[in-house]
Write a structure and sequence with these properties.
- By secondary structure, the protein is mainly α.
- It has three domains: 60-101 and 324-373 and 391-506, Cyclin A, domain 1 (Orthogonal Bundle); 115-185, no CATH class; 188-321, Orthogonal Bundle (Helicase, Ruva Protein, domain 3), CATH 1.10.8.
- It is built from 24 helices and no strands.
- The chain has helices at 21-27, 53-74, 78-85, 90-98, 115-120, 132-142, 150-159, 168-187, 194-197, 200-214, 236-244, 263-278, 288-298, 303-317, 326-342, 344-352, 362-366, 375-386, 394-405, 407-413, 417-425, 433-473, 478-487, 496-500.
- Residues 1-51, 63-86, 465-491 are annotated as: Disordered.
- Residues 9-18 have a biased composition (Low complexity).
- GO terms for molecular function: GTPase activator activity.
- It comes from Rhodofomes roseus.
Length: 506
């Protein structure tokens, strides 16, 4: 691949063998594709032609980076531009000149929140005796013990399904009167209603959901082979109803060329089809099964809990699945800007290798590293992200941490876009979670320090500028003016999206 001299990002060849599945569909212009390879249509599930999306996505991310660089270039003198182009980037320069301390991680994953600690946070009536921010801090630092069913208790609080400042009785009442009843009300829009269940658009949704569910997390015991569930002990009529209204076929085990199914896979499909009726504008989008299946496992097959936890997850991640790809474009653009500020050398390398589209990070962000870590590590990662302890977009710092962990290899040996793409794809199941989370925390704290230092310096510059005007008005001479101009530091301009990374709590 020849390196482009343009600052714009060139899209990878559609014949590239290393594109991750979600992105390959963006560059195969002859095919009709969806969002999980990247973007199924929402409500009606029509698969849209993506011929124009690859160029739009890559160009948008590149253009955002170009605009950001031009804004910064306008604030820098030529000598400072030369300095920025050296190995000493903006972040390193500010850190060295301001003597900013290197932050330390607070993570203690070897001492997770266990059942004893969790119970100590509530009184006898179930009312918490610590603030929700303290709970989230401890979950961020320690994680949650995998023993027993503790995650099933904690996750609904993390996601906002259960109110924190309430008693057990108040939560139970709210759950029975609102959440559980509402779930079945939505489900009953299609369950047992033949004219809806067999409608053409619903048939298409059922088929796509069923195909996805049959191949999601099949190594998990609940989804592996034939499972025993409470359905096996139900009445024949209920079992018959379940058989009739399975996701794809009246015959639960009529699999054709698909992987075999079982009752838990059917329950998972029921949750996703019900979400399709709950979120009518978006509907089901391929990739959602990747997000829902771990929740179903943690909730031990509880449909209602799974559904409402999934709703809260989608409230956070809905932007990832928008039909126009605007949510993913914005996140990739923000990550690109974050790299340019935190590691200018790596940014320039991506620019030289036509990799500023960051397609190799696409799957990481789309489904929050679901396919990059073993199942148990995915659970640990997600519960840290859901705390929103430092940032509502902490996943971008996780992505940056992964890139920083491999920056030497990328800078020294990977000189083509395809090489970077292949290398990042092959990181799947090789990334060490705890060190990555610790580095992500340090990167966030460093970024926060950087922003605070920029703002402090900007505040100092303004009075100095006013002083210059007074001196000029007093005709005190041009030497002082030139001296002050040289002494005045030029600071990078941070976009609203970058500053938005400092927003925490939902």
């Amino acid at each position: 691949m020849r390196l482009s001299k343009s600052s714009r990002t060139r899209l990878p060849s559609r014949s590239s063998p290393h594109l991750p599945d979600p992105v390959r569909s963006l560059v195969k212009r002859e095919r009709r594709v969806g969002m999980g390879e990247l973007g199924r249509e929402g409500r009606r599930g029509r698969i849209r032609e993506r011929a124009g999306i690859p160029r739009a996505l890559g160009a948008h991310v590149a253009e955002e980076g170009e605009r950001a660089r031009r804004r910064e270039a306008q604030t820098l003198s030529s000598s400072e531009m030369e300095q920025e182009s050296s190995d000493l980037g903006v972040f390193e320069l500010l850190q060295s000149t301001a003597n900013l301390p290197v932050p330390k991680s607070s993570r203690e994953p070897k001492h997770p929140v266990d059942e004893k600690m969790w119970e100590s946070w509530f009184d006898q009536e179930g009312r918490p005796n610590i603030r929700i921010e303290e709970m989230k801090r401890e979950v961020f630092r320690r994680g949650i013990s995998p023993k027993g069913s503790l995650r099933k208790e904690v996750w609904p609080f993390l996601l906002g399904v259960f109110k924190w400042d309430a008693t057990d009785a108040e939560r139970r009442k709210q759950w029975e009167e609102r959440s559980r009843a509402q779930y079945h009300s939505i489900k009953n829009e299609w369950w047992g209603v033949a004219e809806v269940f067999d409608r053409a658009d619903v048939l298409e949704e059922r088929h796509r959901i069923d195909v996805d569910c049959r191949r999601t997390d099949r190594a998990q015991p609940l989804f592996a082979g034939t499972a025993k569930t409470p359905l096996d002990e139900s009445t024949e009529d209920e079992k018959g109803m379940h058989m009739r209204y399975s996701m794809i076929s009246p015959q639960l085990y009529d699999i054709g060329a698909q992987a075999p199914t079982n009752e838990h896979i059917e329950r998972l499909g029921s949750v996703l089809l019900t979400y399709n009726f709950y979120e009518k504008e978006l509907g089901y989008v391929q990739g959602m099964s990747d997000l829902c299946a771990p929740v179903y496992v943690v909730m031990e097959g509880d449909e209602e809990l799974t559904f409402w936890c999934f709703v809260e997850i989608m409230n956070r991640m809905k932007q990832n699945f928008l039909r126009d790809q605007s949510g993913m474009r914005r996140q990739l653009s923000t990550l690109q800007q974050l790299i340019s500020v935190m590691d200018p050398e790596l940014y320039r390398h991506f620019e030289k290798t036509d990799a500023l589209n960051l397609f190799f990070c696409f799957r990481w962000i789309l489904i929050h590293f679901k396919r990059e870590f073993p199942f148990e590590d995915v659970l640990r990662l997600w519960e840290v992200i859901w705390t929103d302890y430092y940032s509502n977009h902490f996943v971008l710092f996780v992505a940056l941490a992964v890139l920083e962990s491999h920056r030497d290899v990328i800078l020294r040996y990977l000189v083509e876009f395809d090489e970077i793409l292949k290398y990042c794809n092959e990181l799947s199941m090789t990334i060490e979670l705890d060190s990555t989370l610790a580095q992500a925390e340090v990167l966030f704290l460093s970024f926060a320090q950087l922003v605070a230092d920029i703002d402090r310096r900007a505040a100092e510059i303004k009075p100095r500028g006013s002083s210059n005007v007074r001196r000029r008005n007093a005709a005190s001479g041009t030497a002082d003016e030139k001296s002050d101009s040289k002494a005045t530091p030029k600071l990078p301009i941070l976009s609203d999206d970058l500053r938005g990374l400092l927003v925490a709590g939902r």
